[in-house]
Amino acid sequence: MNVNGYSLCFKRTTVSEVDRLTEALKNRPKDPELLYWLGLAQFDEGKNDQARASLVEALRLRPGWAEAHFSLAKVFDVLKRYDEMVDAFREAAWLKPEWAEAHYNLGLSLLMLGDAEEAVQAFQRAVDIDPGCSGAHKGLGIVYSLLGDEEAAQRHASLADRLGPGGGTS
User: Fold this and answer.
1) Considering the chain, what is the average pLDDT of its residues?
2) In terms of CATH, what superfamily is 97-170?
3) Strands of the chain, DSSP E
């Protein structure tokens, strides 16, 4: 989308997108795709409780949808519902076991909640899938340091530094 000549490549929707999707849902109220996109549009507009409700309904209609679980986890993060955030990232990673970004975000969530042991597993899975995932290596460096394994911590921290912020999934 272009606005005044500028490309808004990071913004998925405009203000009118919520209205457009809400109108489309009147004709197809049980369409999980429309509900999913409505949830993302609401999230973009900061309507986080509405986004949660739309994504939950999309998942009720299509339960095994990894991307919807992932998006719902992001909403739970903003709503400070951290246990539900972890559950949603865990579900996304379980549904799409080769999705490094889901494992990486699960690791971040677990680390935030203080579950270092399980965070190691999630970050390691992300690295196994995408060895260039600098964020997962950085996460492993932090977690191993917390667990007292300074050798492993230094190895992963150094690798994350070499890969740089754009390395891999994160």
Assistant:
1) 90
2) Tetratricopeptide repeat domain (1.25.40.10)
3) 2-3, 6-7
